[in-house]
Amino acid sequence: MALYYDAASVLSSEGGQGSLKSRIYGPSTVKSNPTQIYALISETAKRDVFLKDVLDRAGLLQDEPKLTPLLALLLCHDHFFSKAGIAAPVKHPLRQSIERHKARLQSEFTRARLRRKCASVDALKSSLDRERAGLARPHPRWARVNTLVDQDVEAMFASLPGCKRKLRLDDVLKVDQGTRSYCYDEHVPNLLAFSPGVDLTKANAYRQGELILQDKASCFPAYLLLGNESKENIGDVIDGCAAPGNKTTHLAAIICETGCTGKIIACERDGIRSKTLQSMVEKANADSVQVLAKQDFLALDPADARFKGVTHLLLDPSCSGSGILGREDIPKLALPEDPRMTTKPTTNEQPGSKSKKRKRGQGQPEGPSLEEEPVATTGNPAADEEEAPTPATGERLQKLSNLQTRIVEHAMKFPAARRIAYSTCSLHEQENEVVVSRLLASQIAQTHGWKVLPRSQQVDGMQRWKHRGVRSKPDDVDEQNKLNQEELDACIRCNPGDEEGTMGFFVCAFVRDVDSGEDSRGSNGSGARNGDASGGDGEEAWEGFD
Ligand SMILES: C[S@@+](CC[C@H](N)C(=O)[O-])C[C@H]1O[C@@H](n2cnc3c(N)ncnc32)[C@H](O)[C@@H]1O
């Protein structure tokens, strides 16, 4: 049936280099009805991660060597979600290649649905639709009032055209008849939610650094790290992965409010992003920030005298960016694992396609790049936090998870460190709860007494936030997420597209009691380490997404 071959061709580099619509509707070799192709692609794109999971668990590609991962995904979409099923005659080999495995597929489908706590297929569809597109729901524009700049907040609001103050987010999101409004956030101090249509980039308050465009979720790490710390406990602070500097300037604002005199050391490995960081710090009037440009956080020596006063660290490393709400044209679908390939494509964008490429280590599959069009949930591309939001699966997720674990392990070695915040804008458990679980099990955490900061000891707004850590596979003995309920509750999640109006995000804080003398060595701890939670699988060779 041509529909599935046509859709697969449009999605791969064979379909040309233009936009999705131009590939489907423009002069091309597609034979099927363009509207049907478009519907198949856009519907599959909402459910790809779910379908991939079903296909991988059912092991379909092992038994159907003629099916490509992309074809399997498209066919399975219609098999499960289209009322008419696969659009091909009953005896057609493509249709048979799926229906032969009907029972096995159905049972994995049902399990996957129940794991998502969806009682029916309709509930599943709504949940997946919300999750993927989150976009149908109006998304507020979040902005943080920069308390580092002297300002008359009321005058600032008066300068925002026709913006009325409301009490609740729901009211701000009602934009009938072009009304525009804002409200203060109920969890994070000095944070505002504006109606979706408000263009803050044109406001003087934004140009003058009085307002910083920053998603609500992205404000959690600095607030969780310092929001309820006493002045005596705060010395210097390291932001290990700092550019473009949203969280750095937030740290600076909180430090200033507490009256601390400590400095913030902001590390950024990438040269260009270091410049963005520097200019953001200047614009925000964040005098307490010292930028270490082109500095790899992992290369800092925790025993260096410069860092002996570092009590707090914030680590927001590179991640898959799967929580970022964005606009994609050619959807990058998460594909089932292909057992016949040694180098596995994880999405439909093929190696060697003409999109601008990122530097990767040897043997890495070339992932899709959104570099040309960075997706900023803030409405301000210059403040885009994640350098390359990229669908990641399997091996690549494992590498990211390893790097993230290594970065936090490194933070745990700073001798005076007492609190660490780790965050990602990823939805994947492997980059979130699994990293936390691996860190707690690591030698460094155990010898230095690091534990998660329990919910009951978190700053008020974070205690009240209801979305907490998850474990999707409680019965799987191989599962790396071994967090107990209290530890899961210490983790904070944000779900893209839900009623909270945030992007997808994860944050967890670690604490230790440095005053108890638990870590008597006072060294960087590296000599004592014999376990390496981050997996010594040579991920150093791969420089990740930047
Ligand atoms: C998710 S972004 C950080 C966003 C930033 N925290 C903010 O709120 O604006 C990750 C940043 O960390 C940088 N990075 C990744 N690994 C690093 C490392 N080992 N040392 C220093 N910077 C690193 C990347 O270049 C990228 O700019």
UniProtKB/TrEMBL annotation:
Comp. bias (Acidic residues): 537-546
Catalytic center residues: C425
InterPro entries cross-referenced by the UniProt entry: MeTrfase_RsmB-F_NOP2_cat, MeTrfase_RsmB-F_NOP2_dom, NSUN5_7_fdxn-like, NSUN5_RCM1_N, RCMT, SAM-dependent_MTases_sf
Region (Disordered): 326-396, 516-546
Binding-site positions, S-adenosyl-L-methionine: C241, A242, A243, P244, G245, N246, K247, E268, D296, D316
Domain SAM-dependent MTase RsmB/NOP-type: 131-513
UniProt cross-references to Pfam families, sorted A to Z: Methyltr_RsmB-F, NSUN5_fdxn-like, NSUN5_N
Database matches in Gene3D superfamilies: Sun protein, domain 3, Vaccinia Virus protein VP39
Biased composition range(s): Low complexity: 522-532
Keyword terms: Methyltransferase, RNA-binding, S-adenosyl-L-methionine, Transferase
Basic and acidic residues composition-biased segments: 326-341
PANTHER family: 28S RRNA (CYTOSINE-C(5))-METHYLTRANSFERASE, NOP2 YEAST -RELATED NOL1/NOP2/FMU SUN DOMAIN-CONTAINING
Homology family: Belongs to the class I-like SAM-binding methyltransferase superfamily. RsmB/NOP family.
Protein's name in the database: SAM-dependent MTase RsmB/NOP-type domain-containing protein
Organism the protein comes from: Knufia obscura
Organism taxonomic ancestry: Eukaryota, Fungi, Dikarya, Ascomycota, Pezizomycotina
